[in-house]
Amino acid sequence: MVRYFRHPMFITFAVFLILPAFIMKLGFMTLAIEVMIWIIFAMGYNILLGYTGLPSFGHGLFFGTGAYICGLIQQHIIAGTWIPILGSMLFCGMIAGIVGLFLARKRGIYFALLTIALTQLFFFIAFLWDGVTGGEDGLMGIERYALTFFGLFSIPIEGILSYYYFVFVILMVSLILLWKMVHSPLGSVLYATKQNEVRAKYLGYNSVLYKWIALVISAIFAGLAGALYAMLMHGAFANPMHWTKSGDVVMMVLIGGGLTNFFGPILGAAIFIAIRDIISSITEHWYLFYGLLIVFIILFLPEGILGYFRVGHASGREEVLEEV
Amino acid sequence: MAILETANIEKHFGGLIANRDISIKIEEGAITSIIGPNGAGKTTLFNIMTGLYKPDSGRILFQEQDITGWPIHKIVELGIARSFQVLNIFNEISPFENIRLAVQSRKKKGFHFLRSTKYFDDINEEAETVLAEIGLASVKNIPTKELSYGNKRILEIGITLASEPKLLLMDEPTSGLPSSETERIKEFIKKISERLTIVVIEHDMNVVLTISDTITVLHQGRVIAQGSPEEIKANNQVQEAYLGGID
Ligand SMILES: Nc1ncnc2c1ncn2[C@@H]1O[C@H](COP(=O)(O)OP(=O)(O)O)[C@@H](O)[C@H]1O
Ligand SMILES: [Mg+2]
């Protein structure tokens, strides 16, 4: 039982569960929600980077697209919450499925460059296609409609506290799903592909198909995060798809130690957002300090913060705590 | 009956001809050795047989089915497994995981994504059985990279066995091993040959002459001789090209 309570998953849930009690009055609620959204994004993305070893620098593409699709569905199809969110996930999964047809056959630097080019392409489409995306101004007026459950009852999520707990529940579900996935046969094949793709093929695994699946999974979570972000901000913008921004999620994973630890991206996302917010309130040039931090981590903590403390391992088979 | 057959295989790398007009038949149930000096094209032939390389021309038939140009995983699914000249295993996970992944693939369970691998009892039990057979049960949970070189070689053979292939291709399984370990691998090959067909590329003539039913000699990409160990020992062309007069 004690082991159970010390589990990083449990700690994460406990922290976010009680956090509002401490930050509500200080006005940090939006920031905390943003952190949870980025955790969902980064944890899903880590399936691709940490477990499958594919360095996409273009996942802002799916985050941004998820935000737009959420708004577009709300404004053109159904003024709700579930359908726009599921639609964003589905659409992002489909885009990943299509670009994955050629991306999954690439590796290393070619893979990375292609993803940058793709996100930049989508950035320009979003930026220039005024009539649909709102262009430079963004797609405004995205709402947080009350959650309805088969017409039986409904829960409003417009208020910041209720939206916080809505995102919190989605975060819990996402993390549990990802945890299960990482420890499943699928997760083991993805990690095998990362380590030694030729051997994986010679065991009979269709490694290209598995890499494609990893890409689609990560895009679905990015789409989910994007949709939640759009509802948080009441708008969708092209910015996250710009190539200079689409790599933020990579940094979160690396800082936290996602390459060697399942929970790395949680810490990474929290630190990234905190630093951005604290330093950017002091100086415009927060990216400079950010760069310094990255250099520090690469020099002294090449496996990220959790990698340094060696809490568990990305293989998913050496966790300090097993029982969940 | 031939389990695997190559017909007029040609492979060029730029100006270099690695395989020329290779047509051989691998007899089912036998141990076939492929010998020849370094650079003769032995590994290239394995690469072509298993789909890692496409031949420039020629066909590969496995159990009379044309598998030329098939992707590796499809060929493996038919029942061909392979160990490599340069060690080819998963270093970041345990020996148990290495074997488990092979069993999991054979049982086609790789796409399950919600249940932990811990709960697939049939897969885990079979992995344990293989580990016991290759004698690595006591080190099954240490990081694979900490195994001794000899044990890593054994582990790779274990991975191939866990696939339960009909045909096993082994590329220099004893290379880099001391003679005591070589003996262990040799005995092991003999033992498993009772249940599957084996093709082994091997330099150690002591091993080759004692385990082989048939020997194929490659020289500069060409098959220059084929026959029983006695015939090969007596073959003058082979003596000149390769053996340099053993006995
Ligand atoms: N991928 C490759 N690219 C270029 N040359 C290759 C490649 N693979 C093998 N070769 C060349 O083909 C010849 C045969 O190599 P190989 O099949 O490895 O020989 P063996 O296994 O008999 O020692 C060698 O000259 C080698 O350099
Ligand atoms: Mg060779």
Describe what this molecule looks like in 3D.
The complex is a heterodimer of chains A (324) and B (247). Chain A is mostly helical. Helices cover 69% and strands 3% of the residues of chain A. Chain B starts with a strand and ends with a helix. With 247 residues, chain B is an alpha/beta fold. Helices cover 37% and strands 25% of the residues of chain B. The A-B interface holds A 177, 180-181, 183-189, 191-192, 195-196, 198-207, 210, 315, 317 and B 50, 52, 71-73, 76-77, 81-82, 88-94, 97, 100-102, 104-106, 109-118, 120, 159, 163. The structure holds adenosine-5'-diphosphate (ADP) and magnesium ion. The site of adenosine-5'-diphosphate has 11 residues of chain B, from β2 and α1. The site of adenosine-5'-diphosphate (ADP) has 11 residues of chain B, from β2 and α1.
Blueprint of the fold:
The complex is a heterodimer of chains A (324) and B (247).
Chain A: H1 2-6, H2 8-23, H3 29-51, H4 60-76, H5 82-103, H6 108-128, H7 130-133, E1 139-140, E2 147-149, E3 153-155, H8 160-182, H9 185-195, H10 197-202, H11 207-233, E4 235-236, H12 248-256, H13 264-282, H14 286-300, H15 304-309
Antiparallel strand pairs in A: 1-4, 2-3
Chain B: E1 2-13, E2 16-22, E3 25-27, E4 31-35, H1 42-49, E5 57-62, E6 65-66, H2 72-79, E7 80-83, H3 95-106, H4 121-134, H5 149-162, E8 167-171, H6 179-192, E9 197-201, H7 205-211, E10 214-219, E11 222-227, H8 229-234, H9 236-243
Parallel strand pairs in B: 4-9, 4-10, 7-8, 8-9
Antiparallel strand pairs in B: 1-2, 1-3, 1-5, 5-6, 10-11
Bound molecules: adenosine-5'-diphosphate (ADP) and magnesium ion.
